[in-house]
């Protein structure tokens, strides 16, 4: 299992500013500064450019620890991992030296090709809008999908050259600041726009960790709230029990919540190790997708048990449990964790259909 004691100083900063991040619809500056000083933004910066370039399991573990304190800020750190991984693999040579001049710079991005590129003599003219770009207000670079002459491509663009449209108004993961980025006939140098093939499955597993890690961490954070309640003099209302732990039903619910979170974490780390071990066989893809989707569902179910234990007071705006609940509800429904598509893929494989 994950050692959640690491990075405690960083976690304390994130916890202290989690509410501010949610209210501002973007990560708190203090939280981002703590991540930068802790080397989090360099997790997937290439080693030759001063970064760590850690593997899938290390990313999952680090983001889970951070998500226990502030899921939104951990999510932004995960987006940085994905965007830097893409940039390192797509833009070699001179562009890479420019992109990774600061190994601790925050990157954001979107793989959705929701823009058009028009080649011109000076480079590529880019026009379009990318939605749900986490951390975009605070990032230095954006790695963005687009179509150039009908071909899927990726562009590396300074965020300062783009317009941020503050469109992120969600019930959960509010602090991710996943607003929209807009380009209007923006000239991008030709060496920073590259046609690419579909992302390999092994890479997609890494990108799934950047989503699932903060969700599992959020479920751990919710458990912290409930554990504190059990350690207090709080008792089940309308009962003869003098404290929560005296109730067999409450103990059962607590055990089930812990089991579900443990199972989600174990599944996540198992998939991460499979990714680190090399490209999983095609026959393993449906199973791994099911494990990812199942882990997200386990986190949701666990938090529901915790809300049952806490009762209606868990929904007070001053209670962090309701924030963890909303963050898990939104984060676990990311396309990387889509349960019905995972079942669809597994069903096709079992039926022998391609």
Task: Tell me what you see in this structure.
The protein is an alpha+beta fold. It folds into two domains: 8-195, Butyryl-CoA Dehydrogenase, subunit A, domain 2, CATH 2.40.110; 201-349, Butyryl-CoA Dehydrogenase, subunit A, domain 3. Helix content is 49%, strand content 15%. It has eleven helices and eight strands. Strands 1, 2, 3, 4, 5, 6, 7 and 8 form an eight-stranded mixed β-sheet that branches. A hairpin with a 2-residue loop joins strand 2 (115-120) and strand 3 (123-133). Helix 4 packs antiparallel against helix 5, helix 4 runs antiparallel to helix 8 (248-276) and helix 7 (201-231) runs parallel beside helix 9. It is globular. It starts with 7 loop residues before the first helix and ends with a helix. The model has no long low-confidence stretch (mean pLDDT 95).
Sequence-ordered SSE layout with sheet pairings:
Elements: H1 8-16, H2 18-24, H3 29-37, H4 56-67, H5 71-90, H6 94-99, E1 107-110, E2 115-120, E3 123-133, E4 141-148, E5 151-158, E6 163-165, E7 179-188, E8 193-195, H7 201-231, H8 248-276, H9 285-310, H10 320-331, H11 339-350
Parallel strand pairs: 1-4, 2-4
Antiparallel strand pairs: 2-3, 3-7, 4-5, 5-8, 6-7
Helix pairs in contact: 4-5, 4-7, 4-8, 5-7, 7-8, 7-9, 7-10, 8-9, 9-10, 9-11
């Amino acid at each position: 299992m994950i050692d959640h004691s690491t990075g405690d100083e960083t976690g304390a900063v994130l916890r202290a500013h989690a509410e501010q991040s949610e209210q501002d619809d973007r990560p708190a500056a203090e939280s981002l500064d703590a991540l930068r000083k802790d080397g989090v933004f360099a997790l997937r910066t290439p080693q030759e450019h001063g970064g760590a370039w850690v593997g899938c399991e290390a990313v999952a573990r680090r983001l889970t620890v951070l998500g226990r304190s502030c899921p939104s800020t951990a999510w932004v750190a995960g987006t940085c991992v994905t965007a830097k991984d893409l940039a390192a693999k797509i833009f070699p040579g001179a562009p890479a030296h420019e992109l990774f001049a600061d190994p601790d710079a925050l990157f954001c991005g979107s793989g959705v090709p929701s823009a058009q590129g028009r080649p011109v003599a000076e480079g590529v003219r880019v026009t379009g809008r990318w939605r749900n770009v986490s951390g975009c207000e605070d990032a230095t670079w954006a790695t963005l999908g687009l179509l150039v002459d009908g071909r899927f491509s990726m562009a590396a663009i300074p965020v300062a050259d783009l317009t941020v449209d503050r469109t992120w108004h969600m019930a959960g993961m509010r602090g991710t600041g996943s607003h929209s980025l807009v380009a209007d006939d923006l000239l991008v140098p030709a060496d920073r726009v590259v046609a690419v093939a579909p992302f390999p499955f092994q890479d997609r597993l890494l990108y799934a960790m950047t989503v699932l890690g903060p969700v599992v961490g959020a479920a751990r954070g919710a458990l912290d709230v409930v554990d504190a309640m059990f350690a207090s003099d709080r008792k089940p209302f309308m009962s003869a029990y003098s404290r929560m732990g005296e109730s067999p039903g409450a103990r059962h619910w607590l055990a089930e919540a812990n089991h579900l979170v443990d199972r989600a974490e174990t599944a996540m780390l198992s998939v991460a190790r499979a990714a680190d071990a090399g490209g999983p066989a095609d026959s393993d893809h449906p199973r791994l997708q099911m494990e990812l989707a199942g882990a997200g569902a386990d986190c949701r179910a666990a938090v529901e048990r915790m809300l049952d234990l806490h009762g209606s007071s868990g929904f007070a705006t001053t209670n962090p449990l309701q924030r963890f609940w909303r963050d898990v509800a939104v984060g676990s429904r990311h396309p990387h964790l889509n349960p019905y598509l995972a079942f669809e893929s597994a069903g096709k494989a079992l039926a022998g259909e391609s």
